[in-house]
Amino acid sequence: MQVTRIDKAKQYPARNHNDMCAFRLQGGEASSTENFWVGYSIFLPDGGADKGAAPTEKVYVVLEGEITIIFGDEDVTLHAMDSILIEANEERAVENRSNDICRMLVVSPN
Predict the structure, then answer these.
(1) Is the pTM here over 0.85, yes or no?
(2) Domain locations in the chain as residue ranges
């Protein structure tokens, strides 16, 4: 068993993100998971991530607030307890268009 307490979670750099903090909860330097990692992201108002794609699928789960995911011409706004699967190599951008913070879990294969 490997427990990560939020007050001990380490921040990690998230390339092409702005006005956000990312913490590793499991995987990477936090634990020895073999197949996935879990991150906790806090997006400030106007924070987000530039358009890009990852070679692996990801799941986003909004815990608090709202976040908008942009896929080409389509925008999807997620609210608390909404989730989304981002397919491998699917290009998207992320924007917090609200005046409140957004707290989100990110689950991704290693």
Answers:
(1) yes
(2) 9-48, 51-93
